[in-house]
Amino acid sequence: MKVHLVDGTYELFRSHFGQPERLAPDGMHVSAVRGLIMTLISLLHQPEVTHLAVAFDSSIKSFRNELLPAYKDGSDTPLELEMQFPLAERVVNALGIVSWPMHDYEADDALATAALLYAKQDTVQQVIICSPDKDLCQMVSGDQIVCLDRKNNFILNEFGVLKKFGVLPMSIPDYLGLVGDTADNIPGIPKWGAKSSSTLLHRYIHIEDIPNTYEFWDVSVRGATALSLSLENNREKAYLYREIATVRTDLEITETLKELEWLGASKNLFPSLCRELGLGNLSNRPQKWQ
Asked: Would you say 219 and 196 are in contact if contact means Cβ atoms under 8 Å apart?
């Protein structure tokens, strides 16, 4: 079997900014929730999708904000989108899908923990993390754990990660520690871009294994002198940024594989919720009910 783990936060953002404004009868914005429903139902229409769960961020700061105060904290999330998060959890539950709303941690941490947990099960052929988030590429393992960008219909296995970033999955946190990640407000190290970072990390794997001076580097990169000086002046910051970019894999995920099996949407809750949100045209979309 295959296990699909969905980044609900990404789907909400994508739908909110990518779809026309939609209001419920009470005037509440529901475009993001509508997009999430359509995404999940589209996923469930695929025969191979039998076991799945959805993870959500909350507006509460995570432990990463304590390490780096400038780290994303959700303060720039539009209010009309933020108000849809509780609705999104109700929708997922009404669809009969397991949901993991995060508080002290992030959705990425839940997805990473779950990917490792379920990949160890003998009956699981593949775990598919449905998210284009660069952070989660560190979880990719061969063809057993892969990342799926549903928007562009593109799967990244281990070879795909290497081809896209120039480094193996195990080096993705190091890569983001050097290059930075604007989506998460991780600044990165001055002068270190994608090309230089991938070249050095392809050779040395981790930041601490990059020699202290460029004279000991056995790969050639442009501007080696300036790169080496910048790294030596900022090694501790690079380690901090790497720690922030490293997803946690030790959260408590209690659901068994059996509990992830999709048995159908609730024939009572889902149609009623769709009518409440002014999305009655979606109320009969699920192909299976319970």
From this structure: no
Residue 111 CB partners (closer than 8 Å, separation 6+)? 5, 7, 55, 129, 131, 136, 139, 247
Longest dimension (CA), the chain: 69
**Cβ pair 44, 38 in contact under 8 A:** no
For 32, the enclosing helix (H) or strand (E) is helix 31-44
Please give the model's pTM, rounded to 2 decimal places.
0.96
Q: What is the pLDDT of residues 65-117, one digit of tens each?
A: 999 988 987 788 899 999 999 999 999 999 999 999 998 899 999 999 999 99
Write down the residue that tokens 């783990």 correspond to.
5
Per DSSP, the three-state class of 46 is coil
Sort 262 into a burial class: Cβ within 10 Å, 0-12 / 13-18 / 19+: buried
For the stretch 52-72, pLDDT in tens is 999 999 766 788 999 998 898
Domains assigned to the chain: 2-161+248-282 (3.40.50.1010), 169-245 (1.10.150.20)
